[in-house]
Specification:
The complex is a heterodimer.
Chain A: E1 13-19, H1 23-31, E2 39-45, E3 52-56, E4 59-63, H2 65-69, E5 71-73
Antiparallel strand pairs in A: 1-2, 1-5, 2-3, 3-4
Chain B: E1 2-8, H1 14-21, E2 27-30, E3 37-45, E4 49-55, H2 67-77, E5 81-87, H3 91-104, E6 109-114, H4 116-121, E7 124-126, H5 128-135, E8 139-142, H6 150-156, H7 172-183, E9 184-186, H8 193-201, H9 206-253, H10 258-263, E10 267-268, E11 271-272, H11 283-309, H12 312-325, H13 332-339, H14 343-348, H15 356-369, H16 373-383, H17 388-412, E12 421-424, H18 432-466, H19 469-484, H20 491-498, H21 502-507, H22 516-528, H23 533-543, H24 545-572
Parallel strand pairs in B: 1-4, 1-5, 5-6, 6-8
Antiparallel strand pairs in B: 2-3, 3-4, 7-9, 10-11
Helix pairs in contact in B: 1-18, 3-7, 5-7, 9-11, 11-18, 13-15, 15-17, 15-24, 16-22, 17-22, 18-23, 19-20, 22-24, 23-24
The chains are: A alpha+beta, B alpha/beta.
Chain lengths: 74, 575
């Protein structure tokens, strides 16, 4: 079972191993700085499969639950 | 005239830079055929030559991820000089755009390293000399809020040069990484107040509480500013300055002529009544200028402040989940929020949504379930005697309609609602001049667009009335109104007037002596069944004819169903 962003607890850090999904999702994520090799910290998540807030390079980004599931963490 | 284009990521302070460089003559526009906006202004460069400066939408990359990138690229290719605004707190990500830009284009450029002060607070320091050397471009450190760096800017533009940037595509991030390593030093700092506040803002529980407080304060401010503008500027202006002028025209035309009827309207008690006369020069100008415009200004003011402080994305995160259930994106919360003051900016705000499906659902839900402040004011006059109970009932019903209609629309409208993916900038202090300028640009846009349409609407309604069409419609709908909604037949004229002006329509219910149930039904139906003419025109423009017709059918159908259901359920419950 792969570890995804969703498996991190609040304030836990990890390294992005890979990003699942199509070209489009990967481009969208990469343009915001979310790409394999980067250190990512999960800040918070909302109830009922709501968005997840993460921090990369000290900058916060919110992403939808479905996108968060595509980010595989080492 | 030379053309200068400001390019950069979203949230880099580009619009603050833009407002520092331009004078009062600025306009906000849409790129033709799209809903992507840009701003244009004039700036002076040293040898007192003038240049046109464009602030284009923020983009992260040149690869086409959304409409914004394509539009931006078109506009960038027309530039004589590029000013690339970089956020010092996020160098690596910002350089992604920079290196793509200059690998591709041969246009002279300079770099503005903005927000260096915020970066320092986070323990980040960047050497502008080294960065300049690495990129082969002049780099000017700026603080758009304090104005630091801007004196040099105009002079530095002369030094704009064409950079030499080469890298292999698959090594792009290594290339960028190497630059960042060489140029930036990071120290660990303790979390700042702004970071702590940021954490609270998106906390599932505290964030929501915080949001409710922010929204309540915002609503109150909007209403306060709007009402003050109406009471102390618009109303006196219209009554003291404009009315005598109109009265002269009225006398000259003679009160019973057709021309008078169209231009001035009906005289109420031998006087021009700006709300009821319904003439082009009377109601036609009064509505957009004295009633809607103050709220538009007031709204844009509060919205721009929230926007520049950086709160909106956080609000979007909190509400995104709820919104997705009804087929919307978290950012459409802005539309809904705006609609409470006036549905017109609410309709305009749907532009920020990416897909046609989202824009359709957002516009329709907004027009159906969200009453504007003018309406709310009148409703509180009528329901006031029933206390909070009346409000909760009505708004509760509208909320259920909003959710219900949203769920249904989401299911049956073709298209996608993409997942939220948004940058959350650090909280920052807004720059007053930028706020004033943005509010001015947005208001000016509204005036130019809305007024002609309201005038057209007034004219058409007048003609329909004169021709007897409205009376005819009244007879046709009498059974619906009385049997389905349980309202007296006099309420029909309120429904007809509601197309023009919802608050007036609600006001027309007052003398009818309606009971609680009837007031709730009437208020709900008036909110749901159709937008007022100003909103209708804007929606027509935003959605296009086909979608507008679909939307209208949905609205009318919903009004019939909800009005009937509320009426009969309340009768059954003995209310």
């Amino acid at each position: 079972m792969e570890r995804t962003l969703l498996n991190l607890t609040n304030n836990e850090e990890g390294f992005i191993l890979s990003i699942e999904g199509g070209h489009h999702a990967r481009n969208r994520l990469e343009s915001l700085g979310i790409r394999p090799g980067k250190k990512i910290r999960k800040m918070s998540s909302q109830f009922f499969k709501g968005p997840v807030v993460i921090s990369i390079d000290g900058r916060e980004i919110a992403l939808g639950h479905g996108l968060a599931r595509k980010i595989i963490i080492r | 005239m030379k053309r200068i284009v400001l390019v950069g990521n979203p949230n880099t302070g580009k619009s603050t830079v833009f407002s520092r460089l331009t004078g009062a003559n600025v306009i906000a526009s849409n790129y033709p055929g799209t809903t992507v906006g840009y701003s244009k202004g004039i700036m002076r460069i040293p040898n007192s030559e003038k240049a046109e400066i464009l602030d284009i939408p923020g983009i992260y990359t040149l690869e086409v991820v959304s409409r914004a990138e394509k539009v931006a690229m078109d506009m960038i290719s027309e530039a004589d000089i590029i000013i690339n605004v970089i956020d010092a707190t996020n160098l690596e990500r910002n350089l992604n755009l920079t290196v793509q830009l200059f690998k591709k284009l041969r246009i002279p450029a300079i770099i503005l390293l903005n927000m260096a002060d915020v970066a320092r607070q986070h323990g980040i320091s960047i050497s502008t000399e080294k960065l300049s050397e690495k990129l082969g471009l002049p780099v000017i450190p700026t603080n758009a809020l304090s104005g630091e760096g801007f004196k040099d800017l105009a002079h530095e533009l002369i030094n704009a040069c064409i950079p030499e940037i080469h890298y292999k595509e698959n090594e792009k991030w290594n290339y960028i990484g190497a630059i960042v390593e060489d140029v930036q030093k990071t120290e660990h700092r303790h979390p700042t107040l702004s970071e702590k506040l940021s954490g609270i803002s998106v906390h599932p529980v505290f964030g929501l509480v915080f949001a409710v407080i922010v929204l309540m304060v915002s609503f109150w401010l909007i209403r306060f500013i709007g009402e003050s503008l109406i009471r102390y500027i618009m109303e006196p202006g219209f009554n003291i300055l404009y009315k005598p002028l109109l009265s002269n025209i009225s006398n000259a035309l003679g009160p019973d002529t057709l021309l008078h009827r169209i231009i001035i309207g009906n005289l109420i008690n031998h006087e021009i009544d700006f709300r009821q006369s319904f003439g082009l020069l009377s109601t036609g100008f009064y509505i957009p200028l004295a009633e809607v415009l103050p709220y538009v200004v007031s709204f844009y003011l509060v919205l721009t402040i929230l926007e520049d402080i950086g709160y909106l994305p956080r609000l979007g995160v909190l509400l995104d989940n709820l919104m997705h259930r009804i087929g919307l994106h978290g950012l459409s919360a802005i539309s809904m929020f705006l609609a409470f003051g006036c549905n017109v900016p609410g309709a305009l705000a749907t532009r920020i949504l990416e897909t046609r499906k989202e824009r359709f659902i957002a516009s329709t839900l907004m027009a159906i379930a969200i009453p504007c402040m003018a309406q709310i004011a009148m409703i509180s006059g009528l329901l006031g005697k029933f206390g909070a109970y009346g409000f909760f009932t009505l708004f509760g019903i509208l909320f259920l309609v909003w959710i219900g209609a949203g769920v249904i629309l989401k299911k049956y409208i073709k298209g996608e609602s993409p997942e939220i993916l948004v940058d959350i900038p650090p909280y920052r202090f807004p720059y007053p001049k930028a706020i004033v300028k943005k509010v001015w640009m947005r208001t000016r846009h509204f005036i130019i667009e809305a007024i002609p349409f309201v005038l057209l609407g007034v004219l058409i309604v007048d003609i329909l009335y004169i021709v007897g069409f409205l009376e005819f419609m009244g007879k046709i709908f009498a059974p619906v109104v009385t049997k389905l909604f349980g309202l007296p037949p006099e309420a029909i004229s309120a429904l007809l007037v509601g197309f023009l002006r919802k608050d007036v329509a609600i006001g027309m219910l007052a003398p009818l002596g309606l009971n609680f149930r009837q007031l709730i039904v009437a208020s709900a139906v008036l909110t749901i069944y159709f937008p007022c003419v100003a909103t209708f025109i804007v929606l027509l423009k935003e959605l296009g004819i086909r979608d507008m017709i679909k939307s209208a059918i949905i609205m009318i159908f919903t009004a019939l169903v909800v009005g009937g259901a509320v009426n009969w359920i309340m009768i059954l419950l003995g209310l």
